[in-house]
Amino acid sequence: TDIPRVHMNELDPEYRSHNKEEVNLGLTAEQAMMEAQRCLDCPNPTCMNGCPVSINIPTFVKQIEKGDFLEAAKTLKETSALPAVCGRVCPQEKQCESQCIYTQKLGKEAVAIGYLERFAADYERESGQISIPVIPEKNGIKVAVIGSGPAGLSFAGDMAQRGYDVTVFEALHEIGGVLKYGIPEFRLPNQIVDVEIDVLRQMGVQFITNCIIGKTISQEQLQAEGFKGIFIASGAGLPNFMNIPGENLVGVMSSNEYLTRVNLMDAANPESDTPVFMGKRVAVIGGGNTAMDSVRTARRLGAERAMIVYRRSEEEMPARIEEVKHAKEEGIEFLTLHNPIEYKGDARGRVTHMVLQKMELGEPDASGRRKPVVIEGAIEEIEVDEVIVSIGVSPNPLIPQSFSGLDVTKWGTIVVNQESMQSAVNHIYAGGDIVRGGATVILAMGDGRKAAAAMDADLKK
Amino acid sequence: MNKIVSKEHFSANVVKLEVEAPLIARSRKAGHFVIVKVGKTGERIPLTIAAADTEKGTITLVIQTVGESSRKLCELNEGDYITDLVGPLGQATHIEKVGTVVCAGGGVGCAPLLPIVEAMHKAGNRVIVVLAARSKDLVILEEQMKANSDEVIVMTDDGSYGKKGLVTNGIEEVINREEVNLCVTIGPAIMMKFVSLLTKKYNIPTVASLNTIMVDGTGMCGACRVSIGGKTKFVCVDGPEFDAHQVDFDEMIMRLGAYNGLGKK
Ligand SMILES: Cc1cc2nc3c(=O)[nH]c(=O)nc-3n(C[C@H](O)[C@H](O)[C@H](O)COP(=O)(O)OP(=O)(O)OC[C@H]3O[C@@H](n4cnc5c(N)ncnc54)[C@H](O)[C@@H]3O)c2cc1C
Ligand SMILES: Cc1cc2nc3c(=O)[nH]c(=O)nc-3n(C[C@H](O)[C@H](O)[C@H](O)COP(=O)(O)OP(=O)(O)OC[C@H]3O[C@@H](n4cnc5c(N)ncnc54)[C@H](O)[C@@H]3O)c2cc1C
Ligand code: SF4
Ligand code: SF4
Ligand code: FES
């Protein structure tokens, strides 16, 4: 237990602020094996309680220690459809690593479970020996998946492994959901997602892009085509705005619009027909992962001043600690305890200034976080030429509006049985952000797995 | 991938494409649109479904070349494929028998107007179409409009065809001669703004179909947002049609210019 926790190898902050290369370089085999030694192979591995899909952590870590990297990757795949993705984007410090005995009992830094997971998955992919799960004989039962984000992909993988005939319908022209259109290349290269999708294809999963369920094909038509079960994984796609004056000025946009242009449409590439603003003074409103991704993207697209504007203090920021650290290294300014109240523009309607209200922390609110309160009269005006609003998203309303029989909350999420993910309609299940309102990749995947198990049991009855 | 089964030139820079899209043909209604992307590096652009043939499984698009993306699409030929095509999107037009309906289309706005003219006429309305264009060779769809309405008035800016004047002159002529119960207008934002000002003066309910900039067309990005009666709405999911008298056209025109001069276009 005396070995210090491994450090992730990273690109130099100045260098990486000008390109989209992945920031984290991964561990070397030596580093991984050394880190794996730290794991105590606890008889009661508390770390597993922190993982929403209960990855067998000590087993895969000890396989890495022995140098059985491909075996480690296999262990991961038993419970996670996308280990290379989760190893990169899971908020490990809040999940598995927060429950590791090192943090819980020894007062030391947790075993770097996420880094090791990424290492094993990357090793397998780079070795070219990706194991394709053996598919039992097809049972001929058709199931449909709506949405190709992490929830839909993990459901599809599990059902294909059980012999079902799986079709995934995706509204956009690319597969992957937020993994493609939201999370940027420098954090999760598209190619890594594509490899995982390819494995699903080889397992016989069919993908149909440019197809919006509820619009292109209706609920009734799906049933008429013989789909015996439907899994809704349509995500949280609707951006929230603050409804303050000037929010419709040119240059003010949602993080969804900004990231979609840059990630899905590759707008920063001169070859791409899609345009994107490349502001010099960019403010991003919010403190979550999406805000960090946006502000770091703006930096890479040439912003001299790239700012986070957040109404609470840094302690309350929901973003992953690693993202905040990376953002700071890249020279992002943090205007915490500031809240925009108005945007001003020029004669052409382009944003030129944001008006900020300074805040201080008051009493804790319902969420247990200290509530920001206005400091009367403390107002500041800052010059900006681009503002990215990143204050959260609401569930995608397409399915709740066009499907009948579903039980929908006033927030627009679909109500399901927590254990089986079954909705109010027998053969329809749902999971991921459309149920949770906005969560994480691994929680969405966990939902997909649960739904697959429950639907399978139900269809076999 | 959707195959182009036929192509026709309406004018030098207006093209009609009939595209294979059986699922969309089956589920679309008047007022719906699609998002189209040409090539791997293409942009997603919205286009109204001008017509559909459920038997052939095709939809018809009428496209005016205004920039790079519409040009790429108009350069495709019969037998070529459109890389990505998704729809039908938006809310369908509310079709009802109200009496006399004036349908005012400007430029390429005449294409998305056609299915509405058809549906309004079928619903038993007296339909008067006002088609406006800069000059004679830019007037499109006159025959199709005639076949589906009670009267077609053509207005040209230069008087080279029909009557000389703006679309608003044509509408006002009808208003002065008979009772108008509803006006539907589609065209450049500036034109819709003036139509809206005119009908407001006469208290005639008016619907405008807004053609904002879009990315996904499914309510995900907010690029298409407009102010309707002071509230922000998304054209792709809440529209594209709105009560014209509530639309903040000045803001819309400003937002349409968002990417002008960015170098790419
Ligand atoms: C910028 C950003 C950064 C993030 N960073 C992290 C992170 O670091 N770590 C983390 O754990 N989580 C992160 N998240 C959250 C995480 O990405 C989501 O919780 C997760 O993707 C939810 O998965 P999902 O499968 O429910 O939905 P999504 O990934 O949203 O996928 C839904 C898919 O369904 C499609 N769809 C919607 N309606 C229909 C329809 N009617 N027909 C067909 N298709 C439809 C959509 O186009 C979309 O592709 C981030 C989110 C964003 C936006
Ligand atoms: C719901 C909807 C339905 C539409 N239906 C049709 C249709 O049936 N046929 C058709 O030809 N067009 C239609 N449009 C407009 C069409 O989407 C645009 O012309 C197209 O996106 C322009 O792309 P571009 O790259 O060729 O031009 P750009 O290079 O993007 O633009 C060139 C010039 O056109 C202006 N412009 C950009 N977007 C629009 C727009 N949406 N409307 C008007 N001017 C614009 C710009 O300000 C610029 O000056 C529709 C738009 C919407 C929102
Ligand atoms: S999937 Fe996420 S939570 Fe589970 S072990 Fe891996 S990094 Fe930890
Ligand atoms: S709790 Fe920590 S030390 Fe124990 S098995 Fe899990 S990772 Fe290893
Ligand atoms: S086009 Fe993206 S929300 Fe309307």
Structural class of chain A: alpha/beta
Gap from first CA to last CA of chain B: 25 Å
Describe the biggest sheet of chain A?
Answer: 5 strands, parallel
> Strands across the major sheet of chain A, in which order?
5-4-3-6-17
What does the radius of gyration of chain B come to? 18 Å
Q: What's the overall average pLDDT of chain A, rounded? A: 92
Reported for the largest beta sheet of chain B, the result is:
7 strands, mixed
Strand content of chain A: 15-25%
Total beta strands of chain A: 17
Low-confidence stretches of chain A: none
Helix fraction of chain A?
Answer: 25-40%
Assembly state here?
A: heterodimer
Might you state the CATH topology name of the largest domain in chain B?
Rossmann fold
Contiguous helical run count of chain B: 8
Tell me about this structure:
The complex is a heterodimer of chains A (461) and B (265). With 461 residues, chain A is α/β, with parallel strands linked by helices. Chain A contains 17 helices and 17 strands. Chain A has a five-stranded parallel sheet with strand order 5-4-3-6-17. In chain A, strand 3 (142-146), helix 8 (150-161) and strand 4 form a beta-alpha-beta unit. The model of chain A has no long low-confidence stretch (mean pLDDT 92). Chain B is globular. Chain B has two domains: 2-89, Translation factors (Elongation Factor Tu (Ef-tu), domain 3, Beta Barrel); 100-256, Nucleotide-binding domain of ferredoxin-NADP reductase (FNR) module (Rossmann fold), CATH 3.40.50. By secondary structure, chain B is α/β, with parallel strands linked by helices. In chain B, helix 4 (142-147) links the parallel strand 10 (126-133) and strand 11 (151-156). The longest helix of chain B has 13 residues, at 110-122. The interface between A and B is large, with 41 and 41 residues. Bound molecules: flavin-adenine dinucleotide (2 copies), iron/sulfur cluster (2 copies) and FE2/S2 (inorganic) cluster. The site of one flavin-adenine dinucleotide has 41 residues of chain A, from helix 8, helix 13, helix 15, helix 16 and helix 17. Residues 51, 53, 55, 57, 80, 86-87, 90, 92, 95-96, 113-114, 117, 442 of chain A line the site of one iron/sulfur cluster (SF4).
